[in-house]
Amino acid sequence: MDHATWPTGTLVVLLSILILYKIFSARLGKSLFIRRIPGLNAIDEAVGRATEMGRPMVFVPGIGGLSLPTLQALSILKYITGIAAKYRTRIIVPTIDSVVYTVAEEIMKDAYAAHGTPEQFNPDDIRYLSDDQFAFASGVVGILNREKAASNFMFGYFAAEALILAETGHQVGAIQIAGTPSVLQIPFFITAADYTIIGDEFYAASAYLSREPTLLGSLVGQDYAKALLILIILAGIITVSLPPMHFHGWLSFLNHLPDWVKWFQ
Amino acid sequence: MFTRFLIKPGAPQWLWVLGVLGDFLIFGGILFGLLQLVPVRFRRPLIVALTFIAGLIYSVEFFYPADPKTQMNFLTPLRIKLGEATKVVYAFALGLGTFNLIRFHGGNVIRNRAGWFYSLVFFISFFAMAGAGFWSYYCPSRAAENTYNMLFEGIVASLGATMFSTIGFYIVSAAYRAFRIRSAEATLMLLAAFIVMVGQVPVGAYITSGLPEVGPLRNLRLENLSYWILSQPNMAAQRGIWFGIEVGALAMALRQWLSLERGSFFEREL
């Protein structure tokens, strides 16, 4: 693993302070506004559709290990399982990673118990398929086809199998909601899925769904952090675009701007 | 740990395997027992503290300047050891995954559910592959190696490649649907995709070969247009998405490290 350079360290600490500040101010009761994310609003619709059709839903938590994208996917799984428990709709969770399998099983068991329907939990609906990428993909394709899934959720880290899963979901007529931090797979999901959660919306999902103050604060903190990054980028653009200039008097601090920008590079 | 003291170097491999398993059973048992002894109200603070310490080790290791020669600092050896310990936890979880597979497919075969035949195929494949793996590892011979290669290269790798190659067909069907949508965005995407795809192949360069290679008109050559789309607007959009993703990941990492993300995974408290 690489080690941080001083500029990287400074930037990470600055961004962290911004995010933590907004988290703690939200915990103190400050009201925060977050915009509407259509993909996440559609989750309830997708569960409702599966309930009406009497067909199961499939939730794929990606092909990553127990990393940040998978944790985010699992928090969405918890939310969906909660609604599925309410409407008594079956949800199948195929996993590629044995650790994710065990955590997903506990999350689902807990979610069903929390909604007063522990008997609805079926251990056979959480399946460890294979740790091989394409063996896993063919397993999920098989489940989607055999079970005639009404809804297909794909959240987490995905690679080449993204399009295979999304196209199969489309072929079986499932309503599909996908979200991944994998930039290369986002176009495939946009093309094949009904709703796609793009970029930072993926990490905003748990905040958006739970409306928990800590998470909402974190979401607003992320926006502040991005605003800071935009300012740094703008400063970079200005310094490399303008001809060399020399300022006098109180503006003389601007003479050092190119050095500051270079420091961050 | 004790294995190193009890088992001499050069002892048979199975003895080492037994020793390591014994180590984990003893130490795992002690750790589990100690956790059970902790009063319920202290369990959460204990987990929060452990999470914080573990995150702190990784954070300090990342931020503390490394020796330029070795690219390591005083915490790097500990970080490597922790990584190895994580692999052991993963190995145990793999056992749980395998148990799940056997339980699910065993249930299918015993209860004669629809598609039980495929579950039988799973058992045959599972034991054939495991048997060939152990055979070639513990009793190396030409026959063992050939059997393993035939199963792995001939079947597993080929099936993986087949699955991968289906993406080509899926790209066509997905692209057809995307381009069929009559909207301004879809038209723009179609146009950009056409220029990028044609600009990547020799016929694209041939179509606009009449345009000069120098001067402002060279920008209209398809290969240059294709390169511009990929390296300018496309790259800018990708980097914009990356910024958002990385900041989101940082926020989530902070929430996990400081145990601020309560209720996102489990309803009940420990």
Write the layout of secondary structure elements.
The complex is a heterodimer of chains A (265) and B (270).
Chain A: H1 6-27, H2 38-53, E1 57-60, H3 68-87, E2 91-95, H4 98-114, E3 126-128, H5 133-147, E4 151-155, H6 161-171, E5 175-179, H7 186-192, E6 195-197, H8 201-210, H9 213-241, H10 257-264
Parallel strand pairs in A: 1-2, 1-4, 2-3, 4-5, 5-6
Chain B: H1 3-6, H2 13-37, H3 40-63, H4 76-110, H5 116-138, H6 142-180, H7 184-200, H8 202-207, H9 222-231, H10 233-257
Helix pairs in contact in B: 4-5, 5-6, 7-9, 9-10
In which order are the strands of the major sheet of chain A placed? 3-2-1-4-5-6
Mean pLDDT of chain A: 88
The helical percent of chain B reads over 70%
Structural class of chain A: alpha/beta
Structural class of chain B: mainly alpha
Let me know the average pLDDT of chain B.
85
Sketch the topology of chain B as an H/E string, one letter per element: HHHHHHHHHH
Main beta-sheet annotation of chain A:
6 strands, parallel
* Helix amount of chain A: 55-70%
What is the H/E order of chain A?
A: HHEHEHEHEHEHEHHH
Low-pLDDT runs of chain A: none
The two chains with the largest interface, and their residue counts, are: A-B, 78 and 64 residues
